[in-house]
Design brief:
This protein has 162 residues and is of the alpha+beta class. It has 6 helices and 4 strands, in the order ααβααβαββα. The protein has a 4-stranded mixed beta sheet. Helix 4 runs parallel beside helix 6. The longest helix has 35 residues.
Length: 162
């Protein structure tokens, strides 16, 4: 009888540990989701970083022609971790913002929403983030794939100036 109680006690202890582990795992998931999913449909950045326009792509092409600038397009997906890191760590930097705001029409478009799927198909975007440099005719003059440090983003921009 004593052996039966010990096995029973061990089973209860194991069950309590399993429940506690499951609760911890669920809470970790909730916290991670809330951290990474903050308002991804809007493209708001710091006042000192890149200012992304919310106009349509066709309007951006017209504006690029009028202002004699190329378009910088951040092709992202809402679930993409490296895309979120670019937005948080690189696009918010003053030096990056000053350069891109002066030299490009800046756009950030979710490739899975709105006009994004059509643009993703047109420009053959297959991974995120894809950074596109497009002239006023809608032709890609350069691109880069993945997360880049600020100095690399600046070098890319300089390479594709009008």
């Amino acid at each position: 009888m004593l052996v039966f109680l010990n096995i029973n006690s061990l089973n209860k202890l194991h069950m309590k540990k399993s429940i506690l582990f499951s609760i911890t795992l669920i809470l970790s998931g909730i916290i991670s989701y809330s951290f990474y999913s903050k308002n991804e449909n809007s493209v708001t950045y710091s006042d000192t970083g890149i200012q992304f326009t919310s106009i349509s792509f066709e309007e951006a092409l017209k504006l690029a022609k009028k202002e004699k600038k190329n378009i910088f397009l951040d092709a992202y997906a809402s679930w993409c971790g490296p895309c979120k890191m670019l937005k948080k760590n690189i696009f918010t930097q003053k030096e990056v913002g000053d350069f891109y705001n002066s030299n490009f029409i800046n756009m950030a478009i979710d490739m899975e929403q709105g006009e994004g799927p059509q643009l993703a198909q047109k420009y053959k975007v297959q991974a995120y983030p894809t950074l596109l440099f497009i002239n006023h005719k809608g032709e890609v003059i350069g691109s880069a794939l993945g997360y880049h440090q600020a100095d690399e983003i600046l070098a890319l921009g300089k390479k594709y100036l009008k």
